[in-house]
Amino acid sequence: MCPTARPSTGAGSVSEPETETETYDWLRESIHGGSLRRVDLHTGSNGWASPPGELFSLRGEDYLSGRRSKSPAGPYLLRPAGVDWLRSSGRLDDVLSRPDNRVSSSLRRSRSLGLSLKSFLFAVNLQIPGRDACHSAVFYFAAEEPISPGSLLHRFVNGDDAFRNSRFKIVNRIVKGPWIVKAAVGNYAACLLGKALTCRYHRGENYLEIDVDIGSSAIANAVLHLALGYVTAVTIDMGFVVEGQTEEELPERLIGAVRIAQMEMGSATYVEHPLQMAAAAAAAGNNARVNHHHNSQQQEEE
Fold it and tell me: Where are the annotated segments for Disordered (predicted)?
């Protein structure tokens, strides 16, 4: 028998073009597609980056033994998947369920190609109220494989809101900024967000989104708006953690972290509030009915 001939790879040969299934990378599209661009960790501004986990100190293995020791966090549990800086006429809830959300749309497209069928999204949506507009800073993270069953993160994703509120923690680290911001926000400050603020949890088929309502606390709202007054001079690291409260749950691990570098308020992308979208759809429906009635009358007169 003759061996099967293989396509020539020599000069002059024509290779077959890659298909969309072979080339589409939803995670890369998600990371680089937001209004807040990814920038260099050390020199970037008006953007986001991924700070090393070692910069965060979390509860160590013997934290509960009385020593209260902390240790560098190490690698994230989930991969960074982008940041959105959004503006709207009202508070934006459950942004991952929106048909125009670019991150969930990228994942849906990938799944339609038979890819990323096990991928899972985790999003933290910091909701910032305002007089003229509401803003949302949305941080996305992704798992390409199923989250390990029985792990603390798995229990958090699939638990009830009471459990989530008792465990969801943010760790802040001011990298650069005026002293007044450092004094107000606190450096290396940790806070159980579910205890201090109203958190709403949205569990979809392949995602968990946590909406953190900054306006639910007068103190937090005041501190944040003070910081926003200096936002173009502030660089801050934020890490998200499921708090370990038993020895078996230690050491703590970062779900993920993000560095926001000297952001500009005006860089936010405007998105329609659901109430606006509903009103526009109703108006379109009314216009269609009016036009249909008008056309019917014309046909009868003819």
Answer: 1-22
